[in-house]
């Protein structure tokens, strides 16, 4: 059933942008860390932190209707980045509980405020361009989310540009006939990260999109699936949401939040909903990067080149001889690289990473190792 | 002609230890640098700086008779290291003039003070053990230096332990018959740094010793050869030495020192003297290291091992995974090495070097490059 009575404009008025700002960005350690996570960095040299850029990209659609979900420790930094936020626009987690609880709580709070809200969830630490192509896709997603009797949970799938083995994929199904959303399709299935061979088949088929974790959905439909699949989580979030805009918020949250199960929103809602036929996808033809490693930082920046070395960081003074790779500097130190290939160096005031492009994904192990050895001051 | 009237003891009373403390140790940048040269570092983990260890090693022979030649900039640091020094025991160079001027001035000043002095010149930045073997060799060198009518310029040659291509060699000639110096021999020739093949032949022959730049000689004989081979240098040094222990020192030095030619003592004195038959050699069976690169620092220290990584520096917190090499840390930063082989990392508060063992000798190029780019604050 098509969107009927409501004009497209009024559907967009139901849209609230939710920005989960949670991940530490361990793969970018020591640049990104618990005290200064990825979303609080300007990783593209644009002059904006990733969270600010996320806000600005959504602002024309949300028209001031935002909900940022972040850790207690980041409240001040997030509010400095987005002074436009009212206190009621920020949801603080006293401890991290994975995306199921974070996004589920956003859905539950918004549902209490207005059950007709269509939420769109967009992580705070992704890089997207151009904005207008992204915004057009979100608009289609909002129309699709509002379509039919119950609406849809609408993912925005990224049109793949290479056979990535680092992302999950979404296989599109039949086209949906949604007014204002000509490219919306059903989701045939979500698939896990493929190996190289499979990824190449996906790319060649033209049927697969990258799962970027972006979705737009009526909060009511979100909560229905959450209740059906994760009743404990749902009950807890509902109890917190009921108290959220009352004087009882702190008491209830302190009591209930720590007891909630940790589960990703994909497993708690998206995949069961897809199996139930409630998930659609809108392809996005914009450039998208989750800045998953230092190679991504090299790609995304108009870095200066010192011979074959990409240098990021305005203060860095780099001398190179027979060297190649990338230097990310958060200091003003002199860095001399001599006779070393494909190196990745990340220099911060209290921690230094030296690895290679090939091994950069293992940075997570360093963080785990340092945690185990008690060197938590730099994590 | 043998040492005749004077007993061995009285010959040793003529001995003055000269310690040229000049080189920056560029190959150890950024640990060693102009403001904190090699000789002011404890590079062996012994608890003593190299210059202090040099002083202590010579003290039983010199019995308080020292002359340290160093740069104006290092006066305070040298005197902190060796509080035993009187002001008259320190010769300050207003600008570096190579070893010919530095050691020549020491000879000229000592000659003014007493023409019978036998000087022994020992660089401030070498590592030697055990002390008693070294001291026995120096004693033999002093006896040899005092032998005959004019005396000898006596080098102490190091018995080679491997076919080094990084040092010059001394080929020993016929044995000399010197009382108190049974191992003294004539010098057949000085030879330049050989290639590997030649170095192996030298080692196998048993006739060659490493030229460590150590020598013991009557100041009178030193100055005779200097006068014959470098008359301009000789005249200048003589003029400065005549004023040295007078109120005219500053005026004369300021006028003359800058005009002196830059030449190594080897070319100014040792080689011409050898050609004239005035040079002898005493073999030294002690362990000797000029700490020429970071690999040497690895060898000389009881470093701790993190997997295959040698870690120097008490404050360093190092995490390694699939890494090998050496980390020299002058900071308390966390350093994570992942998937990188044979790396050399030198971490100081204002400069970082990342290279490989194979390329470590090219560090000089980095220093030259940074000088050219104006980054002299870290040199």
Key structural traits:
homodimer; 379 residues; alpha/beta; Spore Coat Polysaccharide Biosynthesis Protein SpsA, Chain A; 5-stranded mixed beta barrel; 5-stranded mixed β-sheet; 18 strands; 34% helix; disordered N terminus
Summarize, please.
Two copies of one chain form a homodimer. With 379 residues, chain A is an alpha/beta fold.
Number of helices of chain A: 12
Strand line-up in the sheet with most strands of chain A: 6-9-7-8-10
Oligomeric state: homodimer
CATH superfamily grouping of the largest domain in chain A: Spore Coat Polysaccharide Biosynthesis Protein SpsA, Chain A
> Rg of chain A to the nearest angstrom?
21 Å
Strand fraction of chain A: 25-35%
* CATH architectural type of the largest domain in chain A: Alpha-Beta Complex
For the biggest sheet of chain A, the summary is:
5 strands, mixed, barrel
Mean pLDDT of chain A: 91
The CATH topology of the largest domain in chain A is what?
A: Spore Coat Polysaccharide Biosynthesis Protein SpsA, Chain A
Distance between the termini of chain A: 51 Å
Question: What is the CATH class designation of the largest domain in chain A?
Answer: Alpha Beta
Quickly count the domains of chain A. 2
* Count of strand segments of chain A: 18
Of all chain pairs, the largest interface belongs to: A-B, 37 and 37 residues
InterPro entries (chains A, B): ManC/GMP-like_b-helix, Mannose-6P_isomerase_type2, NTP_transferase_dom, Nucleotide-diphossugar_trans
Domain MannoseP isomerase/GMP-like beta-helix (chains A, B): 322-368
Keywords (chains A, B): Nucleotidyltransferase, Transferase
Domain Nucleotidyl transferase (chains A, B): 17-302
């Amino acid at each position: 059933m098509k969107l009927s009575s409501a004009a497209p404009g009024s559907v967009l008025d139901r849209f609230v942008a939710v920005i989960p700002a949670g991940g530490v960005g361990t793969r970018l350690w020591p640049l990104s860390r618990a005290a200064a996570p990825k979303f609080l960095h300007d990783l593209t040299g644009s002059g904006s932190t990733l969270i600010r850029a996320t806000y600005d990209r959504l602002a024309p659609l949300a028209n001031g209707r935002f909900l940022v979900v972040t850790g207690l420790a980041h409240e001040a930094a997030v509010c400095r980045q987005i002074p436009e936020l009212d206190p009621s626009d920020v949801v603080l987690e006293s401890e991290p509980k994975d995306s199921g609880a974070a996004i589920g709580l956003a859905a539950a709070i918004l549902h209490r405020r207005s059950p007709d809200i269509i939420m769109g969830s967009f992580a705070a630490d992704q890089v997207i361009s151009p904005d207008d192509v992204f915004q057009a896709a979100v608009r289609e997603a909002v129309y699709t989310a509002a379509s039919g009797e119950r609406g849809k949970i609408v993912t925005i799938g990224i049109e793949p540009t290479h056979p990535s083995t680092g992302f999950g994929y979404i296989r599109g199904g039949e086209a949906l006939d949604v007014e204002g959303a000509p490219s919306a399709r059903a989701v045939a299935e979500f698939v896990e990260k493929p190996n190289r061979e499979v990824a190449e088949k996906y790319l060649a088929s033209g049927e697969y999109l990258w799962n970027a974790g972006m979705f737009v959905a009526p909060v009511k439909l979100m909560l229905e699936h959450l209740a059906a699949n994760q009743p404990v989580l749902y009950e807890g979030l509902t109890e917190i949401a009921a108290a959220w805009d009352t004087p009882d918020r702190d008491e209830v949250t302190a009591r209930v939040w720590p007891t909630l199960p940790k589960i990703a929103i994909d497993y708690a809602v998206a995949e069961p909903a897809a199996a139930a036929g409630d998930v659609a996808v809108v392809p996005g033809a914009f450039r998208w990067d989750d800045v998953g490693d230092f190679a991504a930082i090299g790609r995304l920046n108009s870095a200066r080149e010192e011979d074959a070395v990409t240098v990021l960081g305005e203060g860095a003074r780099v001398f190179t001889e027979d060297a190649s790779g990338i230097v990310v500097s958060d200091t003003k130190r002199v860095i001399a690289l001599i006779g070393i290939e494909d190196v990745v160096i990340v220099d911060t005031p209290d921690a230094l990473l030296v690895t290679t492009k090939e091994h950069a994904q293992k940075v997570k192990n360093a963080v785990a190792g340092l945690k185990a050895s008690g060197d938590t001051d730099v994590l």
